[in-house]
Write the structure tokens for this entry.
Amino acid sequence: MSESRIFEGKTSTEAIENGLKELKVSKKDVDIKILEDEDKKSFFSILAPRVVKVEMTLKEKKEENKPKIIKKEEKEVSKENMEKAKKQVEEFLKEFISNLKENINYEIKEEDTNTISVVIGGEDSKFLIGYRGEVLNSLQTILVAVAGKNITEKIHVNVDALGYREKRKKVLEDLAERIEKSVIKNRKSVTLEPMTAYERKIIHTKLQNSDKVKTESIGENENRRIVVSLK
């Protein structure tokens, strides 16, 4: 059973607002009982400071019966096709980088039975990242198409350069935490700037277990962005 607490204010509205702010919840999350009505003051208390007390009890949270999302299992890529995919990626990168005439190297390996990992390094590889990973994301999209050419199974390709992905993930997770605190403190929703699906997933994942805020994506295509709001 939830514990009840008493809050005060000059009016019932003020007392309720004080309680909601301190408990960091919305009005729908509590049961409210006014203990002292501001309209029922006696003659002897008319000159006393106006104080209204309200009792607030947090409602028991009910488990939501959310439908289970069943992920369709991807068909495992055959060893022969994985070798074919890696060879196609290798041939493309070899020609692509030789035309750049820059000091860039790369390593191609199997991350799992459906995924190829491409790690790019070298003194001049920084420009392949681009602003917030735009060039890297474009290169990854191209390599997914290259790897899957004439192959029926779905093949994933993860591309990284100079450890950018992990650094960006940390930046976005820190951002998610700051936004969560801001939404709870100011009780106002925050809309983030447009992000890629990869970056939005990091924000959603970081805040999915929050008991105070929720996330949702709005907008279309390159204008797709996340809104963080109170539950």
